[in-house]
Amino acid sequence: MSSSPGTARQITVHRYGSPGRGPKAYLQTGLHADELPGLVVMQHLLALLDQAAAAGRITGDIILVPYANPIGLSQYLFGKHAGRYEFDSLGNFNRLYPDLAAPIGDALSDRLGPDAGANVALIRAEANRLLAAINPRSEVDHLRLELMRLSVDADYALDLHCDDEAVMHLYLGTALWPGAADLAAELQAQAVLTAEVSGGEPFDEAVGGIWWQLAKRFPKAAIPAACLSATVELRGDRDVSDDLASADAAALFRFLGRRGLIDADPGPLPKALCAATPLDGTDIIECPHGGVLLFKQAAGATVAAGDLVAEILNPATGARTPLVSRASGILFARAGHALARPGLPAAKVAGPVPLPHRTGRLLTQ
Ligand SMILES: [Zn+2]
């Protein structure tokens, strides 16, 4: 949908294999537009898939969207690029995806039974039917809808993002762990954060959450977690290089091989670097006021509850406010710039124990 006369945007979609033959994987990147590591990973992955295709080794249905957000890529303000939120609606590009679980459940309530395969087929058909019937109301709604239409019936849906300064980490539905442990090990993730509902309807939950929401609503029916959907955080936004991207693309390629989408020997699974921890065990340490953020811990550091993570320097008085972790675990991400303001997430620490203050919307806005 064009947002204004004389403009038109497009996404590029690469397809390998054939629909209905083997498992289906969908990979997209750049949904937040200011997160570029995945755009390079996709090009390295495309080269590997081209080789596999030329050798007749694609055994599944693989879709790649190498930049998922042309709206966000075009947003400049005062000479600087601004992703994450859409200028028009001020909405986060990775929130507000349509929640299909409720209408699918309403439509199929008397047809879901003990046959898991039949249920998967019914649910996917209904999801496709619902998405085909939605008329988008804005350009950004249309973008969300097209990405859902490409992915909603996939067995694997990987959304490649990054944080500010960060180590490799994943967001997953609780039902997908430990099933997705091979993905985490291949990517050498240092944190895996699980939630049943993280709040805000991000893409990965809109696609994958259908399954565990329906399984909860219809406990007598056999409804598997039929889509391994994950948000993959490819480190920090400055970690853009061919070296990192080629290694990450090779890891994703091995994952697709291990899952039967490519006829290629993935070799032994690398040793996992972490276990999953609940997203409500992640302490998001926010700045209580403005000032200059001075970190005392690097991304990737292991910290204990009570440890000093950073200080906010008050430039008027020289006073320093300590920011302390309430979780014990890995500090997997921290703010990428030093100008603190109230509410800015300064650092994220993945702890194994749910924290009392972590309720409601569990993701940063
Ligand atoms: Zn992102």
Rounded Rg: 21 Å
CATH architecture of the largest domain: 3-Layer(aba) Sandwich
Bound molecules: zinc ion
Helix content: 25-40%
Arithmetic mean of pLDDT: 97
SSE sequence, one letter per element: EEHEHEEHHHEEEHEHEHEEEEEEEEE
CATH class of the largest domain: Alpha Beta
Strand residue content: 15-25%
- Helix and strand content put the structural class at alpha/beta
Number of helices: 8
Count of DSSP E strands? 19
What is CATH's topology name of the largest domain? Aminopeptidase
CATH superfamily of the largest domain: Zn peptidases
Structure description:
This protein has about 375 residues and is an alpha/beta fold. It folds into two domains: about 15-275, 3-Layer(aba) Sandwich (Aminopeptidase), CATH 3.40.630; about 280-350, OB fold (Dihydrolipoamide Acetyltransferase, E2P) (Beta Barrel), CATH 2.40.50. The chain contains eight helices and 19 strands. The strands form four sheets. It has an eight-stranded mixed sheet with strand order 1-3-2-6-10-8-9-11, with helices on both faces. Strands 7, 12, 14, 17 and 19 form a five-stranded antiparallel sheet that branches. The protein has a four-stranded antiparallel sheet with strand order 16-15-13-18, with no helix packed on it. Strand 2, helix 1 (about 35-55) and strand 3 (about 60-65) form a beta-alpha-beta unit. The radius of gyration is 21 Å and the shape is globular. The model has no long low-confidence stretch (mean pLDDT about 95). Zinc ion (ZN) binds near residues 32, 35, 94 and 161.
